[in-house]
Design a protein that fits this description.
Strand content: under 5%
Radius of gyration: 16 Å
Helix content: over 70%
Number of strands: 0
Shape: globular
Number of helices: 4
Order of helices and strands: HHHH
Structural class: mainly alpha
């Protein structure tokens, strides 16, 4: 039951992270940032938000914040590049529908981010 609660919290805060990303992306675009800059700013804000809520509310971690933050950003960069590779392969090379591939990619990213966060970044220290 406890593991289900944690996963539910992860999905809930993941949804909020998505909203942060979209809001920042639209805001940066409104202020005249180009697509690359707006996307980068949105990614940084969303990952920063995700780190805070994952550390405090999802995994309730007491670990070292700076080490965890560095590992969290590195893990998110890893899944970002995995997603980018998947999208380039399936959309640009194999010519699959971009929207369908984005949904599939998000399922992999969500799973990868959860596993990296749970078992590496915010792992419970045995006493």
């Amino acid at each position: 039951m406890k593991k289900r609660e944690e996963l539910t919290r992860y999905i809930f805060f993941g949804g909020l992270t998505t909203l942060v990303s979209i809001a920042v992306q639209f805001g940066a675009d409104f202020l005249g940032a180009g697509v690359t800059l707006a996307t980068t700013i949105a990614w940084i804000c969303a990952v920063g938000f995700a780190f805070a809520v994952n550390k405090i509310f999802v995994f309730k971690s007491k670990g070292k914040p700076l080490r965890q933050a560095a590992a969290f950003f590195a893990a998110r960069l890893t899944t970002y590049f995995m997603e980018l590779g998947f999208m380039l392969l399936t959309v640009e090379v194999l010519l699959f529908n971009m929207h369908a591939m984005k949904i599939i990619a998000q399922a992999f990213v969500l799973t990868g981010n959860y596993l990296l966060s749970k078992f590496i970044i915010f792992k419970k220290v045995k006493k």
